[in-house]
Write a structure and sequence with these properties.
With 887 residues, this protein is α/β, with parallel strands linked by helices.
């Protein structure tokens, strides 16, 4: 039977596609790996650089340390070397890699020696590998050198083998991202010979190195580690290829590891061991810390150990989790089963047997509960700690609560004394138990335990024969004492635990409610400024820190919102800009520019930064892991709200642009014909006068001149209307108010219309005692001209046009009435809009600006203009002007 073809794994194909997509945007990293200084890594890197240059690649030397070796310095010849950045520290100038110079030069390939080097304080990044990461992110390829003892996951193994603790380490994840690793090998004997000949260090340094680090056994072990790490990389590449290409093979079941993190220093050793084991098994791995109610009160050292171990695990590629639980072993096993963990790595600090019996053993409990899950135990070679990291009991209640607890026991004793003798004394124990419960519920665990001890003593002293002494004659009271003490302690412990659980739940509920309230406020906030103010206010209240939000503006970042008194100096502005451009957290409490006073969090949406959030404490306190997670949630909400506000603004701008485009189209459509017609008439008349001047009689010549003049006047009115509309919209219109006669206004308007109105009968009705009206005479004349001209356009020849004036409510009313075609009801208000004309089959010329200009002039006079249909047909346009000028 033919075997079915094996199809590629879709998940692996997707991972490969995503990796290739990321690789296209980043530069490639090649590592020249050695097992010790002097094996020839830098020399090999320079040789490879010359080969690439011969192939036409733009290669520059960013930083190469020759250690004054003649053959290495000779290899630098012919390569462009960038100047180093000089950093002053304690009056000593230290040369470092100049990342900005690399970006300015932008070569295709840059050489950066000593990948694990620690930069001088004041540099952009604490570590050189972080400089390399930034260069790779800019799309520039990098060649670098690296010794195996600087690998983070091998740090403790190297220390155990060589006896030397290496402080300059590089996370394994960066080595895994390298596109190529070339092992530079030299037999240990030859390396030792080079060392003695002074080709690695100067003679004095070489002698010390041979005695400490450069021993043949150490070099052999390091050489094996380098080969193994390179072989693992090749094996991983081979497996990836087999999975993507669907090559059948003996695939083992997927492994998953879980590292148990606690406040003990052994946690860092566990993380490194877990990373090595995960590499060997090619497995996903978790770093899990269980946070119980009593473990919330870890000492400062224990809390710092937890935070440091979790950060290390995150740097090494682990999935970090903090889970809540009461029973640590049960919670760990439950997490392992839910996440398909196959192996658990835990520590076993060395301590005495009796302490394990009394306190219990997490390791033994894990083994008992693990079932089919394998448990790996890593012992602590340093032995028991001089001061064990255990939960520290701290007073959670203030001293007045302890005083209230003492008074409560005294009150119960005072109540019991009169009752004593009427009932059996053992029944009075219930009163003391009630006092313990009250103290536990309302005063806290500490005061309730004090109440338990005082209750036993008070009951024995005041209520047990012989009274007023601690002597006991009846042995049955001993059982009563023990019962009262045990039950009181149990009640106080349980009640205190319930109280702490309630407080923990309340704290979590408060965080959830603040997140919900913030998201709700941001959702309904109308504009960007309100959104930013809400975010700043919430962060300031929650974290008790100053906060600032910077958004892109004019090619840089500008402060858009900040707490009161927040000032951002140029250095901090530069850090914020870096965080925005690289879309990475920077500043205080991070690995990038940690000397900054502020922590800068990019506001990230869909892989791009829309701004930067900065938080600054008033004192030397760092955010813990829970606070950082909450701040991340705030930042995500803020980023979404900012993007929503920006999108709303863009939509508004797009709507304005669309309306502007429509207005421009309407303007062109409206005035193109009206501009072209008079221009054509004028051009035709002038052409005839020019070409046929001698053959034209006087009458025809005068006719042509008259036509040209009329069309020129028409064109002048059109341009005047456009200019008037522009003045009105820009607010540049200025009024010269003086008392004016309405009769003069109408007469002047009729005179200006001239022949345009001679085909219509005009009837004017203005009362003789009509008062003077405050107005700008010339502008109101223009209004009347426009209204009369509009009536002429839409009325038949010979029809009557009436103009009347009247008084109404301290207003002068002017009405222009015609018997024309009328205005449809739905267009009565729209006729005053710019470029709007009633759609009618009749061809009526005009730009649709006359009524709009009239409306602008009337409203500038604080008046009112409107149109109504006239009974019997036609239109009435009414103008109302106040009789008293507005202040």
């Amino acid at each position: 039977m033919a075997s079915q073809p094996v199809r590629p794994d879709p998940d692996e194909l997707l991972k490969q596609i995503q990796a290739e997509e990321r690789a296209r945007k980043r530069g490639t990293l090649k590592i020249f790996l050695g097992y010790a200084a002097g094996v020839g890594k830098t020399y090999a890197m320079l040789e490879a650089a010359h080969q690439r240059k011969a192939q036409g690649i733009d290669v520059v030397v960013g930083y190469v340390e020759t250690h004054k070796r003649i053959e290495t310095e000779a290899k630098l010849e012919g390569l462009d070397v960038l100047p180093r950045k000089q950093v002053e520290y304690h009056n000593v100038v230290l040369p470092e890699l100049d990342v900005d110079a690399v970006f300015k030069r932008r070569p295709q390939l840059v050489l950066v020696d000593e990948f694990a080097h620690t930069n001088a304080p004041g540099s952009r990044h604490p570590k050189r590998y972080q400089d390399v990461e930034e260069i790779l992110g800019a799309g520039i390829d990098v060649y670098t050198t690296f010794n195996i003892q600087h690998l983070e996951s091998l740090n403790d193994v190297v220390a155990q083998v060589t006896g030397v603790i290496v402080h300059e380490t590089v996370p394994d994840s960066l080595i895994d991202q390298a596109s190529e690793i070339e092992v530079i090998d030299l037999p240990p004997d030859e390396l030792l010979s080079r060392l003695k000949e002074g080709k690695v260090y100067i003679p004095e340094q070489a002698a010390r190195a041979i005695q400490k680090f450069f021993r043949k056994g150490n070099l052999t072990a390091l050489r094996e580690m380098a080969f193994r790490r390179a072989a693992e990389r090749v094996d991983n590449q081979m497996r990836d290829y087999m999975e993507i290409s669907a090559i059948p093979g003996p695939w083992p079941a997927t492994e998953r590891l879980m590292i148990c993190i606690s406040g003990h220093p052994i946690s860092e050793r566990l993380v490194r061991a877990g990373r090595r084991l995960a590499d060997e098994l090619k497995a996903e791995w978790f770093a899990v810390h269980v946070q119980t109610l009593d473990r919330r009160r870890f000492s400062a050292v224990g809390a710092e150990n937890i935070a440091r171990s979790l950060r290390l695990a995150e740097d090494l590629g682990a999935m970090v989790r903090q889970v809540e639980g009461q029973n640590v072993p049960a919670t760990l096993v439950d997490f392992a089963r839910k996440n398909n963990v196959t192996k658990i790595v835990t520590g076993k600090p060395l301590r005495s047997r009796w302490k394990e019996i009394v306190s219990g053993s997490l390791t033994n409990d894990l083994i008992r509960l693990s079932g089919h899950i394998d448990v790996y135990i890593v012992s602590d070679p340093s032995g028991p700690l001089p001061a064990p990291i255990t939960p520290v009991l701290r007073p959670t209640s203030s001293w007045p609560r302890y005083v209230l607890s003492i008074l409560l026991v005294a009150l119960i004793t005072f109540i019991s004394l009169p009752i004593y003798g009427n009932i059996h004394s053992t029944n009075l124990v219930m009163l003391y138990l009630a006092g313990v419960v009250i103290s536990a519920l309302y005063l806290g665990r500490g005061p309730s335990m004090l109440a338990s001890i005082l209750s036993v003593l008070a009951f024995d002293y005041f209520l047990v024969e012989p009274r007023y002494t601690f002597a006991v004659t009846d042995t049955e009271y001993v059982i009563t004492f023990l019962g009262l003490f045990i039950v009181s302690i149990a009640i106080s412990s349980l009640a205190g635990r319930v109280r702490e659980q309630v407080e923990a739940i309340r704290a979590q509920e408060q965080q959830s409610s603040t997140l919900y309230a913030l998201s709700r406020e941001l959702t309904v906030s109308p504009d960007l400024d309100t959104v930013l103010a809400k975010v700043i206010e919430q962060i300031s209240q929650t974290f008790n820190r100053h906060a600032v939000i910077l958004l892109p503006q004019g090619g840089g970042l500008a402060v858009r919102a900040a707490t009161t008194g927040f000032i951002l100096d140029p250095d901090e502005q530069a850090v914020a800009t870096w965080a925005y451009e690289k879309n990475r957290v920077a500043g205080r409490g991070t690995d990038t520019l940690p000397a900054a006073k502020i922590r800068y969090q990019p506001l990230n949406v869909a892989g791009r930064a829309v701004g930067v959030l900065g938080v600054r404490p008033d004192e030397a306190r760092y955010l813990n892991l829970t606070q950082r997670e909450l701040l991340d949630a705030y930042a995500s909400l803020a980023a979404l709200a900012i993007e929503r506000a920006q999108l709303a603004e863009q939509a508004r701008q797009a709507e304005i642009a669309s309306a502007t485009e429509k207005l421009q189209t309407a303007l062109l459509n409206s005035i193109s014909h009206d501009l072209r017609t008079p221009l054509v008439s004028i051009t035709g008349a002038l052409t005839s006068l020019d070409e046929q001047a001698e053959s034209l009689n006087d009458e025809y010549r005068r006719s042509l001149v008259g036509t040209a003049r009329e069309e020129a006047d028409r064109l002048n009115r059109l341009v005047g209307n456009l200019l008037s509309m522009t003045r009105i919209e820009s607010g540049a219109i200025s009024l010269h108010l003086e008392p004016g006669d309405m009769q003069d206004v109408i007469g002047t308007a009729l005179e200006q219309l001239g022949k345009r109105i001679e085909d219509h009968e005009v009837k004017v009705n203005v009362p003789m005692d009509f008062p003077l009206v405050p107005m700008d005479f010339s502008l109101i004349v223009q209004v009347v001209v426009n209204l009369l001209e509009n009536a002429v356009k839409y009325s038949t020849k010979g029809s009557l046009i009436e103009v009347s004036a009247s008084l109404l409510d301290q207003k002068a009313r002017l009405e222009i009435m015609d018997r024309g075609v009328g205005i449809p009801p739905e267009d009565l208000t729209r006729v005053f809009d710019k470029f709007y004309r009633v759609q009618r089959p009749e061809s009526v010329s005009g730009t649709g600006l006359g009524l709009s200009i009239s409306k602008g002039i009337v409203e500038a006079h604080h008046g009112l203009i409107y149109a109504n249909a006239r009974d019997g047909g036609g239109t009435v346009i009414t103008v109302e002007l106040p009789l008293q000028s507005a202040a």
